[in-house]
Amino acid sequence: DQQVKQNSPSLSVQEGRISILNCDYTNSMFDYFLWYKKYPAEGPTFLISISSIKDKNEDGRFTVFLNKSAKHLSLHIVPSQPGDSAVYFCAASAGTSNTGKLIFGQGTTLQVKP
Amino acid sequence: GAGVSQTPSNKVTEKGKYVELRCDPISGHTALYWYRQSLGQGPEFLIYFQGTGAADDSGLPNDRFFAVRPEGSVSTLKIQRTERGDSAVYLCASSPSHGHYTGKGRELFFGEGSRLTVL
Description:
A: mainly beta, Immunoglobulin-like, six-stranded mixed sheet, five-stranded antiparallel sheet, 53% strand, globular, B: Immunoglobulin-like, seven-stranded mixed sheet, four-stranded antiparallel sheet, 46% strand
């Protein structure tokens, strides 16, 4: 069963506009959520994270929102830039003893057009 | 090096052969993880080391897969009697410690991966 789901395989936005990437999860034991970005032929790189005790975390152009009741999180990128074009993975972990054991979604490919 | 280093970057082998994939973590990182990413999927957890011992190997798909980290630094993922379904990118990641909190969060530092193709 897929505990973390990214239902949109791809997203295309215009430079300067907002990109919104969505992620749903099923396991109520998840207490930490992360977003990773991956360029071709590179490993995933950490982007931003949020603890389940918060509903929003912001870092520059990137904001992650968490809706625990809906088991849904989203990543907002404002303004989007062509260099943001990559595959974005949502990931989750459960408990302080499992913090490096991440459950990843399938990924969403973001294309930002100049 | 500054980052996680994985070798080989690409490995093509025949069905039934034995394969070793190597990971050199960031210096000083005690926690090391192996993940596998199949085409069109996100990375999938395989095994985690804290120091020399495998703390959690629940993600290894079967007993053909084995990993070691004898001196608490470099790790080797070993796959016996490879099958076509083993074809994937094998990612290694490290962190200063398990449950490490940086200024940003519980981040793992990934290598570029070893792409395994089993013919």
